[in-house]
Specification:
Elements: H1 2-20, H2 32-92, E1 111-121, E2 126-132, E3 139-142, E4 144-151, E5 154-161, E6 171-176, E7 179-183, E8 192-203, E9 206-215, E10 224-226, H3 228-231, E11 235-242, E12 268-272
Parallel strand pairs: 1-11, 2-10, 3-9
Antiparallel strand pairs: 1-2, 1-8, 3-10, 4-5, 5-6, 6-12, 7-8, 8-9
Helix pairs in contact: 1-2
InterPro entries: Asp_endopeptidase, Peptidase_aspartic_dom_sf
Keywords: Coiled coil, Hydrolase, Protease, Signal
Protein name: ATP-dependent zinc protease
């Protein structure tokens, strides 16, 4: 197609020249072979000129593409090298094992008690070997000669306690009754109605308060018993141990303030018998 267009253009130029020039100066007619030879020469020249004009643009595009491909190749190589470095660091890094946390103590905020403990009662100003019994619901203390009486319209109780053992005289105390409890010892026996007093206790370094019912425990091994109501919220019992808090020395007796009246519910010592 290109060659045909070139041929037509060349032919038209020759025809135009022939029409404008005078007849006197017209060139000699060309034969067919000469005409074809010249036509082919001009076609080759035109094709060469066209190729020469197109060639720089193609080379520039190829150069640009080659540069872009080279840049992409360099970026890929850099990414591969980075991946290798990260893999090597991961393999050679020292893994620090997580520190295992110590399990929380089963005691929590509670303290440990053995089957037998030494307990000091502030109101009686004395220490007692005490049985810690999770099988008993309430707490009780060995009291003798229990006598109920009324004072200022309230129920009070008078009782004796062997604060220094049964080989020494008992001490007489008086206290306000906070309530009464009924304890059933045997199915064939009547309920035992006992007066209850309030007391403050010390076990080792721990202090607590509880209610104690008064009863004759002379037939039992320990004068003081602490039951579940005292234990449940403050202590855990290990029946395999005794005197976990030691046989602590009895605290010094409190010296009563003569100017300060005693509390109505306090246990009052009325002297030794």
């Amino acid at each position: 197609m290109l060659k045909q267009l070139i041929a037509i253009a060349v032919a038209s130029s020759f025809m135009g020249c022939a029409a404008t020039e005078p007849t006197a100066h017209a060139p000699k007619p060309l034969d067919t072979d000469t005409f074809n030879t010249r036509l082919n020469q001009q076609q080759d020249q035109l094709v060469a000129a066209i190729n020469q004009q197109c060639q720089p643009t193609d080379l520039t595009s190829l150069t640009t593409l080659s540069s872009q491909v080279e840049q992409l190749s360099q970026q890929i190589n850099q990414l591969n090298q980075t991946a290798k470095n990260l893999s090597a660091q991961k393999q050679t890094s020292v893994v620090t094992p997580a520190l295992s946390q110590c399990p929380k103590s089963a005691l929590g905020d509670k303290f440990l008690l053995g089957e037998i403990e030494n307990v000091f009662i502030d109101e009686l100003n004395a220490s007692f070997a005490t049985r810690i019994d999770t099988g008993a619901e309430s707490s009780s203390i060995d009291a003798r000669n229990i006598t109920l009486f009324e004072r200022d319209g309230a129920q009070w109780v008078r009782f004796d306690v062997y604060t220094q053992g049964e080989k020494q005289p008992a001490t007489n105390f008086e206290s306000k009754v906070v309530r009464f409890v009924r304890i059933k010892q045997d199915a064939n026996e009547k309920d035992d109605r006992r007066p209850v007093i309030h007391a403050h206790l010390k076990i080792g370094q721990y202090s607590a308060e509880t209610d104690l019912n008064l009863t004759d425990r002379s037939h039992l091994d320990y004068p003081l018993l602490l039951g579940r109501k005292f234990i449940k919220d403050i202590a855990v019992v290990d029946v395999g141990q005794r005197y976990v808090h030691g046989k602590a020395k009895q605290p010094k007796p409190k010296q009563p303030d003569p100017e300060q009246p005693k509390a109505e519910s306090a246990i009052v010592s009325s002297g030794k018998k």
